[in-house]
């Protein structure tokens, strides 16, 4: 599931193409019809669905529609790659301990409401941190609070701007997401 640019989606799908990940990208759900993620999924012919408050104004119906799509495509693990909406109860129940998310900081630092995108890196620099990083975690009812599965630190340089820091962290995101999914598939990380 992805809302935006889709660079993590690309990294994961590329790893399935090279054989680094023995997994199949079954389906993409996006809440933005023209997101980079949707455009990429169409290009590489991954089944993709635009589902949002616009297509399903009732949140319960939206949640059910997303859950049904996951079942119809035999999804084992739901990977959130920059999905900006809260996950509904139905999907959480159906995929309990099988929904993972990536966050561009060392959680629990710089997580929670409002801590997304460039805001995370702005806050890290404003706090004078010398290191930040990437966290992969299970998704539960609260933002950024599920069990942590993997973390990797990234140095903060004295001359970093939020943008330069974001670029360095993103490169680590791509590697850590693929490595973590691989470890889940191979049973080295238990969900
Ligand atoms: C990443 O920074 C990820 O950590 C956060 O959203 C961003 C998504 O970027 N959850 P992209 O769409 O994968 O390029």
The amount of helix comes to 25-40%
Q: Tell the overall outline.
A: globular
Query: Helix and strand succession?
Result: HEHEHEHEHEEH
Instruction: Give the strand order of the largest sheet, numbering strands 1, 2, ... along the chain.
Output: 3-4-5-6
Q: Give the biggest sheet.
A: 4 strands, mixed
Q: Alpha-carbon distance between the termini?
A: 18 Å
- What radius of gyration results from the CA coordinates? 16 Å
Bound molecules: 5-O-phosphono-beta-D-ribofuranosylamine
Contiguous runs where pLDDT drops below 50 for at least 5 residues: none
Q: Please state the structural category.
A: alpha/beta
Mean model confidence by pLDDT: 97
Q: How much strand content do the residues show?
A: 15-25%
Number of helices: 6
Number of E-type strands: 6
Multimeric organization: single chain
What descriptive keywords fit this protein?
single chain, alpha/beta, two-stranded parallel ribbon, binds 5-O-phosphono-beta-D-ribofuranosylamine, 38% helix, 191 residues, 6 strands
Summarize the structure.
The chain has 6 helices and 6 strands, in the order αβαβαβαβαββα.
């Amino acid at each position: 599931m992805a809302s935006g640019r889709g660079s993590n989606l690309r990294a994961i799908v590329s790893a399935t193409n090279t054989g680094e990940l023995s997994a199949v990208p079954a389906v993409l759900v996006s809440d933005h019809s023209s997101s980079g993620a949707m455009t990429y999924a169409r290009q590489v012919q991954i089944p993709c669905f635009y589902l949002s408050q616009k297509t399903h104004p009732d949140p319960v119906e939206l949640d059910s529609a997303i859950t049904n799509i996951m079942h119809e495509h035999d999804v084992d693990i739901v990977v959130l790659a920059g999905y900006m909406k809260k996950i509904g109860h139905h999907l959480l129940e159906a995929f309990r301990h099988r929904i993972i998310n990536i966050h561009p900081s060392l959680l629990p630092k710089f997580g929670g409401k409002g801590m997304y995108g460039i805001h995370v890196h702005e806050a890290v620099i404003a706090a004078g941190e010398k290191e930040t990083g990437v966290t992969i975690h299970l998704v539960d009812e609260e933002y950024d609070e599920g069990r942590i599965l993997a973390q990797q630190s990234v140095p903060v340089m004295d001359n970093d701007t939020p943008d330069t820091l974001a670029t360095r962290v993103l490169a680590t995101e791509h590697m850590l997401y693929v490595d973590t999914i691989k470890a889940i598939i191979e049973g080295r990380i238990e969900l």
